[in-house]
């Protein structure tokens, strides 16, 4: 199989083709080997290496990078996107003012060639590149970034990541409807190539905010022209190194090198295929068969074997990410004492060391280590495995020995082994039963957003390496506040920058139960050179290449 079920059809044989390819393939002459390669790709099951299919003496086949796509994109609109998977595709199509720096370093120039900061730290001035172009040839202007921000912050847009702009003067007030005049928001195009941004308060991390996914620009005139269809191939206009060529629902997204990009000559990969797989086992089989060049993960049970047999292909990347359980606080059975009991009955060391075995570390608090500043670390609470206290709390909640506690659903989109381990811990320590439900990622995310869950596996990945960004997800009414929890003391502590106090409220009230700090364990073909990905799942594709075996 090639990453999709037979029932859904193979690429080229039906399925949802969202528009025609966006222009001709760059740098490819219609040689016989290339035509054969195209036929193999259309069939979806070609096993030969596309980087070396050209015969000696003939033109080389295009460089094709094939990546696993974990979730079917909900949208390719930065104003609607929430998942790192979706931003992973968007970063190939759109370029922000700044780019994520290599290895988590400082941001690098993107659409803006340089920027400066006022002496008081409140005003950032970005100078756009003179050669910046959209994929239809129109210059990239400062007004494009202002219009993109206005669209994302408009309350009717209901952008899930609007809060990433709230460092900008009056952005929060505009997004919440407190003011309606966008000219009061601190975003101004001084001229075509100069963007001036005024902040609410000095923020030395602001460049990292600007380099985040929600700050990717769009052409609002294209959005207005095509409506909700603007993200389809043939309609999508971007300013990134690639253009959208194909989108087959639940199969793949294809992007091709953009000849109009400002530094097109530096882009060595001709195409990137983001290939959708139903589960980790099918992804693993595809990698071993040479059908993809990089995975998103490795099945837990196979990590030791890869470490022994193919260590050069097995990679571990610590992430700024906390995996946790969200408790639906609107359910009567999940009152405060019961929630804390469930949290204390989880043996996190056992979960990470015996079940996951991928370099993850036990999360005894919510903020991962890279986000712990002196302000967030002093006096922070610590969740320990304490089954005796958990049983006492559950009895205090009215369920001694687990008697009378309803059989709730423990839902997720992946990691059934981890959920099964938690299920067994609760059965052993508390005498309660939960039913495990695994859903498609998109369905699970919709359930989290709408509150149609009981206990749910979730992940917290900030857009910016900032404790305020991560803790902000649980402010009252925040779009990613899946537990529907509200606590005035927590809100005040986050807004005051007292992160230790905020985290203490979060763990004592337990609308969530932190499980582990994630580490990405993935397979990468030795043929892929220049891989760049940071702890926030942000990739930069410009420096990547795919080389033939023996030419590294």
Any overview of this molecule?
- With 552 residues, this protein is an alpha+beta fold.
- Helix content is 27%, strand content 18%.
- The strands form five sheets. Strands 12-16-11-15-13-14 form a six-stranded mixed beta sheet, with helices on both faces. Strands 1-10-9-8 form a four-stranded mixed beta sheet, covered by helices on one side. It has a four-stranded antiparallel beta sheet with strand order 4-5-7-6, with helices on one face.
- Strand 8 (242-248) and strand 9 (252-257) form a beta hairpin.
- Helix 9 packs antiparallel against helix 12 (387-396) and helix 16 (488-496) runs antiparallel to helix 17.
- The longest helix has 15 residues, at 416-430.
- The two termini are 29 Å apart.
- The relative contact order is 0.15.
- Mean pLDDT is 87; it is low at 1-59.
A few lines on this structure:
The protein is of the alpha+beta class and 552 residues long. It is built from 17 helices and 18 strands. Helix 13 links the parallel strand 13 and strand 14 (434-438).
List the helices and strands and how they pair.
Elements: H1 32-43, E1 64-69, H2 84-93, E2 98-99, E3 108-109, E4 112-117, E5 123-128, H3 142-153, H4 171-175, E6 187-191, E7 194-198, H5 206-210, H6 220-226, E8 242-248, E9 252-257, E10 271-276, H7 280-288, H8 303-309, E11 314-327, H9 336-344, H10 348-356, E12 361-362, H11 374-377, H12 387-396, E13 408-412, H13 416-430, E14 434-438, H14 441-450, E15 455-460, H15 467-471, H16 488-496, H17 499-509, E16 512-523, E17 528-529, E18 545-546
Parallel strand pairs: 1-10, 13-14, 13-15
Antiparallel strand pairs: 2-3, 4-5, 5-7, 6-7, 8-9, 9-10, 11-15, 11-16, 12-16, 17-18
Helix pairs in contact: 9-12, 16-17
């Amino acid at each position: 199989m090639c990453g999709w079920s037979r029932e859904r059809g193979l690429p080229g044989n039906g399925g949802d083709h969202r528009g025609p390819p966006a222009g001709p393939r760059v740098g490819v002459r219609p040689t016989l080997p290339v035509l054969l390669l195209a036929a193999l790709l259309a069939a979806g099951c070609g096993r030969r290496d596309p980087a070396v299919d050209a015969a000696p003496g003939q033109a080389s086949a295009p460089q094709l990078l094939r990546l696993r796509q974990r979730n079917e994109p909900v949208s390719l609109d930065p104003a609607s996107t929430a998942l790192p998977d979706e931003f992973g595709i968007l970063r190939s199509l759109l370029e922000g003012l700044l780019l994520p720096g290599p290895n988590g370093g400082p941001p690098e120039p993107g659409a803006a060639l340089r920027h400066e900061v006022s002496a008081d730290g409140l005003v950032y001035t970005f100078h756009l590149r003179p050669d910046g172009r959209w994929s239809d040839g129109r210059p990239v202007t400062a007004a494009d970034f202002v219009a993109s921000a206005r669209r994302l912050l408009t309350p009717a847009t209901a952008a899930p990541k609007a809060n990433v702009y709230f460092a900008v003067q009056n952005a929060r007030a505009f997004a919440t409807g407190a003011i309606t005049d966008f000219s009061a928001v601190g975003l101004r195009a001084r001229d075509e190539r100069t963007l001036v941004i005024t902040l609410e308060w000095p923020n030395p991390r602001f460049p990292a905010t600007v380099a985040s996914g929600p700050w990717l620009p769009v052409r609002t005139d294209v959005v207005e022209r095509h409506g909700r269809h603007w993200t389809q191939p043939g309609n999508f206009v971007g300013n990134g190194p690639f253009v959208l060529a194909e989108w087959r629902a639940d199969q793949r997204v294809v992007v091709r090198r953009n000849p109009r990009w400002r530094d097109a000559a530096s882009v060595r990969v001709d195409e990137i295929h983001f290939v959708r797989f139903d589960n980790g086992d099918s992804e693993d089989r595809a990698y071993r068969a040479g059908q993809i060049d990089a995975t998103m993960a490795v099945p837990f049970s196979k990590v030791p074997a890869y470490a022994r047999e193919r260590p050069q292909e097995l990679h571990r990347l610590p992430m700024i990410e906390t995996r946790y359980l969200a408790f639906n606080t609107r359910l009567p059975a999940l009152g405060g004492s019961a929630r804390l009991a469930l949290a204390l009955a989880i043996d996190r060391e056992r979960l990470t060391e015996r079940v996951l075995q991928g370099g993850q570390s036990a999360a005894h608090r919510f903020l991962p280590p890279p986000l712990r500043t002196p302000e967030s670390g002093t006096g922070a609470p610590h969740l320990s495995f304490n089954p005796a206290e958990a049983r006492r709390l559950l009895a205090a909640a009215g369920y001694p020995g687990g008697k009378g506690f309803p059989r709730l659903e423990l839902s997720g989109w992946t990691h059934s082994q981890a959920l099964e381990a938690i299920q067994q811990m609760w059965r052993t320590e508390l005498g309660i039963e939960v039913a495990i439900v695994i859903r498609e990622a998109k369905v699970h995310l919709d359930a989290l957003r709408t509150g149609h869950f009981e206990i749910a596996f979730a992940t917290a990945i900030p857009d910016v390496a900032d404790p305020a960004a991560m803790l902000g997800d649980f402010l009252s009414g925040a779009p990613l506040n899946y537990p529907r929890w509200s606590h005035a003391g927590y809100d005040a502590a986050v807004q005051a920058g007292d992160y230790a106090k905020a985290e203490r409220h979060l763990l004592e009230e337990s609308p969530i139960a932190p499980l582990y700090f994630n580490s990405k364990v993935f397979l990468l073909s030795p043929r892929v050179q220049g891989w760049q990905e940071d702890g926030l799942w942000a990739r930069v594709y410009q420096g990547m290449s795919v080389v033939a075996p023996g030419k590294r």
